[in-house]
Structures are given as C-alpha cells and as structure tokens.
Amino acid sequence: MKKMLLRIAFMILTLMTLWYLDGVMCVKDEHGINQAQAMYYQPRDTIDVVMLGSSHIDCDIDTGLLWKDFGIAAFDYCAAEQPLWNTYYYLREFCKYQSPKVVVLDLFSPARFKEDYQYDYLRHNLYGMRFSLNKLEMLMVSAEPERVLDFFPGFAYYHERFDSLTMEDLVYPFTVHRKSLSNKGFTPYLKVAAQNEPTIDQKYSGGLTVKSEVYLSRIIEYTKEHDMELFLIVTPYITVAEDELVYNRVREIAAMNDIEFNSTNFDYDEIGLDFHTDFNDDSHLNYWGARKFTDYLGKELKERFEIPDRRGDERYESWEVHYREIAEYVKANSM
User: Does domain 2-333 have CATH number 1.10.150.120?
Assistant: First the structure.
C-alpha cells in the first residue's frame, strides 16, 4: 500500500511539474497565441459574435467598446496573417465551446497572401490552440509533410525561450485564468503614423487562390449548417488594386450565397477616419482609429442582425472588466 501511494504521489508530482513547466515555457504574444488561449477561459455559450481573421481583427475591433456602447458580447479570435484554412479550423474549435449567433470574417489575408503554405506566422496560429484532432488537421493542411515536425509538438520549440524568461512567465500558470477571462482579444496600439488615403478604382474581380476559395466555401457551409449568420468584412487600411481584385471576387461569392459583405474601405468618411491620426501603420488602425471603426461596426451589426444586449447580466461581468482594463492601459501608456 505504501509503494502504491508513493507511485501515485510521484505521478501527481510529475504531472503537476509538466503542467507548470508548460505554462512557464509556452510562447505568449498578442499576435494570436494569447487570443486563442483566452478563448478556452470564456464562460461557455456567452459569446454572441466571434470575429475571425487576421491581425486586422484584434487591432481594429475594440471588443470593450462593443460591450460598453452596444452590449455586444464579442470576441476577437484571430491571428496574424491568418489564411482561410486556419480560420476554418479556428471556427470549428470555437464552436466546441461557444454558440455564436454571428460570425464576422475579415478577408485581408486571402487578398494579400497567395501561397498555399504560409509559414511566417504559422506558429502564432497554432500554439494557442489546445491539442486535439482539429488542431492536427489544421496543421496538416498548413504545412507540407516534410515540415510538419518543424511545428509539432509545440513544446519542442519552447527550449529557445530559456534565455528570455521573465517573472511574468514564472507566475503565468497561476494567473492565466484571471487574465484570460477578461481578455476578449482586442490589442490597442498607441502609435500614430500618418497615411495617404488610397484611391479605389479596381473594376475587375479575381485573384482569390483555389485553396482560399475552397476554404471560404467550407466556412460558408459550416455557418449555414450551424445556423450562424456570416458577415464578410474588410476593415479600413491602405488598400491596393491587387487586394481590391480579390474583394470584388468575394463580393460575387457573397451575392451567390446570400451573405452580407461590407468592404469598409469605401466608408472612410462615414467611419470618420483621419488619415493623419488614426493609423498605427499602413495596415492597422491605432486605438483611436479602432474606436471610430468599432462604433461604425457596432451600428452595422445591430442593424443587420438580431444581437442581444447583455449589459446587466452578471454572467458577462468579465466584459465590463475587459472594458476597464483597456481604458486603464491606454491611460497609463498614452503620452
């Protein structure tokens, strides 16, 4: 009996050690990993609107403001340069835990990046997702067979972080629940970089790769099968003719499938964007531009879809905390 108890104690200690080391060593960043990890800590079936796509989502859509001004319980579930095949598996993962009424899908990545295997930010798209068959399937369509072991298993990559560990890493396993619960995915950027307003005169359509079009079709089918409204969008940025070629093709696909689509690069004036003050760089809005765009988007969502106002419901207290944390961060870091 003593030996059995010692074995059990040793197994528990080993598992606890592995759990702690994995939490300390895992990669943490705001380019997709933190957003994906935070999703697992959200109260089940509380998120009404999920925002999917590239960094244009987490930089441009202020989930705190959507909550404060519209009562929308939204979550930015995205990653840098996310291709549509990753988005498809993100949507499947999300729906294991949530039952969103509206899926908002950003189309920047398929317009700008054309390779069938996009490695620059693949780790940021992978490492926040928990191990599952869904994650393995996503990896297999995201990496060529000879490169799969470059990205899996994830902890094989962690050893490179030994020299950069901080006190925040050491306490992370004990604080991740609290921090993730109030993290709804939004990343406020406070830099100001003046831009030139683009001219949009592309009349033709095309440019969407076969792989991207296949996975866009799968996303459309999935949302229809699960009775979710799909809203295709392009967030404001310094667009170019090659991108607009793809958006014109997306507009055709949306019309064929009776899906809402809004390329907001045509709505700069309605949004109220100032190209001298509202951009972080040529591809992303800063915090002040995001507030303007979020106000515009919140009105669009309320007009197009039936989305409940969750303010006053105690199950949604973490959204109120999220709003306050953003305000405190901006106040502390603004000049």
Answer: no
